[in-house]
Amino acid sequence: MAMMRRKLVAGNWKMNGLVKDCAFPKALSEALNAEPRCDVLLCPPATLLSAMSATKPDWLKLGGQDCAAQTSGAHTGDVSAVMLADLGCTHVIVGHSERRSDHGETNETVKLKTAAALDAGLIPILCVGETLDERESGQAEDVVVRQLLASLPACDADRIVIAYEPVWAIGTGRTATPEDAQAMHAAIRSAWPGRDADVLRIVYGGSMNPANAEALLAQTDIDGGLVGGASLKPQNFARIIQSAR
Ligand code: PGA
User: Fold this and answer.
1) How far apart are CA 72 and CA 185, in angstroms?
2) With CB atoms 3.0 to 4.6 Å apart as the test, which of 25, 95, 144, 205 could cross-link to 110 if both were Cys?
3) Is the pTM above the cut of 0.90?
4) Which one of the listed residues 91, 98, 165, 185 is annotated catalytic?
5) Per the residue annotation, which of 96, 105, 130, 185 is the catalytic one?
6) Residue 69 burial (CB < 10 Å; 0-12/13-18/19+)?
7) Over the chain, what is the mean pLDDT?
């Protein structure tokens, strides 16, 4: 029997958002009209988490965009998973390709951060994805599976979310076709090292928008989305959430 996995639609605001944008959850509720049928997560910059946590509706979950590998101590500028959990976050993005490229995060670093998130009781959203060169040379599946296995600490499938984010699709307006994304999600599920792969949620990220979300989210192994640009406007984000059933 096919496993029913509840979908997750997550907004990744990246380095966007000021105090005035704490009104976003209210605007999103209005745009949605009814409580969503899927899990909805917002990952604003860390500076807004505290204020949003105090005012958000119950159905909206909050997450960080990154966490330190350490719990506390002499790590100027870093935010730990324990601190995010303390604010009411339930999730944290780890290993986003922008962190991997801007901050030189390796699979080893990402594995430590993922483990720190799990230790703090957060659900890590572990990002993997190939570059355009890797896709065009036919190596996409190998690269992504290798990245996944090298970034993944021992973990039950229901304690983590994997985000497949092809680097060439992030912020470019180019999206993987539903068929290509489905094939990669199926490859990730088959490569999952535990026996519980059927409960693993694998979300797609990379220029997901109100026009392409429905076709992507209809694929068997696509369990949601990690949405950047289109999560910044309540109307757009609401339409993507409504496409998830
Ligand atoms: P995008 O970003 O939707 O703007 O392409 C997705 C992401 O980087 O998580």
Assistant:
1) 35
2) 95
3) yes
4) 165
5) 96
6) buried
7) 97
Please name the residue that has the structure tokens 């303390």.
Answer: 86
Give pLDDT tens digits for 95-117: 999 999 999 999 999 999 999 99
pLDDT over 60 at 82, yes or no: yes
Q: How far is the CA of 1 from the centre of ligand 1 (A)?
A: 33
105 is catalytic: no
Query: Which residue has the CA at smallest separation from atom 3 of ligand 1?
Result: 228
Catalytic residue check, 96:
yes
Alpha-carbon distance values, 96 to 124, 147, 204, 224 (Å): 11, 12, 13, 16
In this structure, are residues 244 and 225 in contact, taking their beta carbons and an 8 Å threshold? yes
At 177, phi and psi to the nearest 5? Answer: -70, 155
Nearest CA to ligand 1 atom 7: 228
Tell me the angle at which helices 24-32 and 46-55 cross, rounded to the nearest 10 degrees. Answer: 60
pLDDT interval class at 1 (50, 70, 90): very low
